[in-house]
Automatic annotation (TrEMBL):
A GO cellular component annotation in the UniProt record: DNA-directed RNA polymerase complex
Protein name (Swiss-Prot/TrEMBL): DNA-directed RNA polymerase sigma-70 factor
Family: Belongs to the sigma-70 factor family. ECF subfamily.
Domain annotation RNA polymerase sigma-70 region: ranges: 24-87
Gene3D superfamilies linked: 1.10.1740.10, Winged helix-like DNA-binding domain superfamily/Winged helix DNA-binding domain
Record NCBIfam families: sigma70-ECF (TIGR02937)
Entry keyword set: DNA-directed RNA polymerase, Sigma factor, Transcription, Transcription regulation
Pfam families from the UniProt entry: Sigma70_r2, Sigma70_r4_2
Amino acid sequence: MEINQQIEKAKLGDQTAFTFLLDYYWNEVYGFMLVRTENETDAEDITIETFSKAFNKISTYNNEFQFNTWLIAIAKNGHVDLLRKRKSSLFVEITEQEDQRAQNVADTTPSVEDKLITEQNLSQLLKFIKELKPHYQEVIQMRYFQEMSYQEIANKIEEPLSNVKIKILRAKKLLAEIIQKGK
């Protein structure tokens, strides 16, 4: 009953109703898209786009259907659009002249000097990371060196996803401050 009231308020432009609906249905739509895309960034982008489209077209929503079903249909369409965009960008016709120019591109393989500089920079970065508190070191290491997703980190350290995102954000900010002082 409350959902229908919030939908009606949203149709009238009530911002708190929009916020309520977003909070109420976010996890359902995001979870659905995460399963379909198997990619956190894509799932989040499609979810944001879904709510944006839904709120822009809320006046067309038909109360005979469940609101979450309507949102999921919008999300599915958003996912299909994303796949179409990617597919069309994969196939690009190139001329023989363009192909020849591509063959003449200089070798971009890192030289011995490039590798040495990269190793020195990495060594310096690791030194700076060690200046962080242990719990910040841990999340930075998992996110950027083990390339774990936010959800994987949350599961591993047994903390809510929102806490992990905040910890990583805070760790990056503190690391930036340490690097600035170190220069």
